[in-house]
Automatic annotation (TrEMBL):
Signal peptide, first to last residue: none
GO MF, any single term: acyltransferase activity, transferring groups other than amino-acyl groups
CDD domains for this protein: NAT_SF
Alphabetical list of PROSITE patterns matching this protein: GNAT
Residues annotated as domain N-acetyltransferase: 1-142
Cross-referenced InterPro entries: Acyl_CoA_acyltransferase, GNAT_dom
Phylogenetic lineage: Bacteria, Pseudomonadati, Pseudomonadota, Alphaproteobacteria, Hyphomicrobiales
Source species of the chain: Devosia soli
Protein name as it appears in the record: N-acetyltransferase domain-containing protein
């Protein structure tokens, strides 16, 4: 029998044991048809300093791209960068053989934006965080 031990911050060996075991299990169940998950980024760079100021990160696995994080600094909002980032993410996803993109967003973030650019809501969690909701979107890529 194994004992359960709480780690407030996962030890790297713990994370590796969980991730490696899960990836091996998933590869066996999917008969190795999909490559290992990978993470990509589309960075927004300051043209003067070259520093990253925002952008998006996404994980590609099992024929879909999951947009993990998307951030555009306040001073750059309203200039079409969100649409450009998502269009580029869709292009990258297609180039990597994905058939769809999914993501989640809070009600105080951008559910209307994702609907506007063709994403369909497939679920929501009410009162998460309290007083708000979390929305899940998907867009098939053809």
């Amino acid at each position: 029998m194994a004992e359960i031990v709480f780690e407030a911050e996962p030890h790297p060996d713990t994370r590796a044991a969980i991730l490696d075991g899960l990836l091996a299990y998933n590869a066996a169940k999917t008969e190795g048809r999909f490559g290992a998950p990978r993470t990509i980024a589309l960075a927004l760079k300051d043209p003067e300093t070259g520093a990253s100021v925002g952008g998006l990160t996404a994980r590609v696995s099992y024929s879909r791209m999951f947009v993990e994080l998307l951030f555009i600094p306040e001073h750059l909002r309203g200039k079409g960068l969100g649409e450009k980032l998502m269009a580029e993410a869709e292009k990258v996803a297609k180039d990597l053989g994905c058939i769809g993109i999914w993501l989640d967003t809070f009600s105080f973030q951008a559910p209307g934006f994702y609907k506007k650019i063709g994403y369909q809501e497939f679920g929501a969690i009410s009162d998460y965080p309290p007083g708000f909701s979390r929305h899940f979107f998907h867009k098939p890529l053809s």
